[in-house]
Design a protein that fits this description.
The structure is a single chain. It is globular, with a radius of gyration of 18 Å. Helix 1 crosses helix 7, helix 3 packs parallel to helix 4 and helix 4 packs parallel to helix 5. By secondary structure, it is of the alpha/beta class. It has one domain: Rossmann fold, CATH 3.40.50. Strand 6, helix 5 and strand 7 form a beta-alpha-beta unit.
């Protein structure tokens, strides 16, 4: 296996690591020489991913891990400590999506997405911070989205959770710096992955548009994983994988809000072929 010296013998744990972006992350770090542990709730996909990682020549392990259960993350931390002597990078990747207007999304669905997208990251950071402190450092890689930086209509629940992941990451990057614990937050735009498999949508038009944008995106999960790897190697805090997303974020930061709102409304209309539903 071709490895990169910086990764030889190091250890990474990836939640939601059995498919999609999580699997791409696991495979990219495996190719760099890391020992890779993946956690997920899908047993069959875990077995497939574990076999793929070992075929790459990696030392790999899989764990059933539901990020809505802190005990599962604690069990992962215990396994890593007992078998690999700790962990160097924790990727809080597990996530889901919801589309629809504010009256389309039930409170139950808000609780569902918050428990996974937001509290899943919180649990991962809470559980692994003591382990990083014990071993004098480490890095969290928290997977957000461009929806965490710019907030298009009809995605309020998803936007809110991903914005919260950015906020948590910014907070921890300062709070944990003295413990030599670094933080990166990944904010991709649409790319080809399996996120829409579990997507809930209160509006069929939003579901159709999201599926189209994901399935026909120019970039796939492997390319985004490679850009993420390079960003982590550089020590980037924000890892922005799409130039158009970065441009939209710059517009939001520096232009009057009315200009930004007009631009994002126009872009949403272009994607949907009409005004966003009400």
């Amino acid at each position: 296996m071709s490895t990169e010296a910086s990764g030889e013998g190091k250890r990474i744990f990836v939640t939601g690591g059995a498919s999609g972006f999580g699997r791409a992350i696991a495979e990219r770090w495996a190719r760099a020489g890391y020992r890779v542990c993946v956690g997920d709730i899908h047993d069959e996909r875990l077995a497939e991913t574990l076999a793929a990682l070992r075929n790459l020549g990696a030392t790999a392990h899989s764990l059933r891990c539901d990020v809505t259960k802190e005990a599962d993350l604690e069990a992962a931390a215990t396994w890593l400590e007992e078998h690999w002597g700790g962990v160097d990078i924790v990727v809080n990747n597990a996530g889901v999506a919801i589309g629809g207007g504010i009256t389309d999304i039930s409170i139950e669905d808000w609780r569902w997405i918050i428990d996974i997208n937001l509290l899943g990251v919180v649990r991962g950071c809470r559980v692994f911070t003591p382990l990083f402190r014990k071993h004098s450092g480490g890095r969290f890689v928290n997977v957000s989205s461009m929806a965490g930086l710019i907030h298009p209509p009809m995605m309020s629940a998803y936007n809110a959770t991903k914005a919260a992941v950015v906020a948590i990451s910014e907070t921890l990057s300062v709070e944990l710096a003295r413990d030599k614990i670094a933080v990166s937050v990944v904010c991709p735009s649409f790319f080809r992955t399996n996120l829409t498999e579990t997507m809930r949508a209160g509006n069929p038009d939003i579901a159709a548009v999201t599926n189209k944008l994901v399935n026909k995106a120019a970039r796939g999960a492997d390319e985004i994983a490679d850009l993420t790897f390079k960003g982590v190697q550089r020590g980037d805090f924000h890892i922005l994988t799409h130039p158009d997303g970065k441009a939209a974020w710059m517009l939001k930061r520096f232009a009057p809000f009315s200009v930004y709102a007009a631009a994002i409304t126009k872009n949403t209309r272009r994607m949907m072929g009409k005004d966003p539903p009400r």
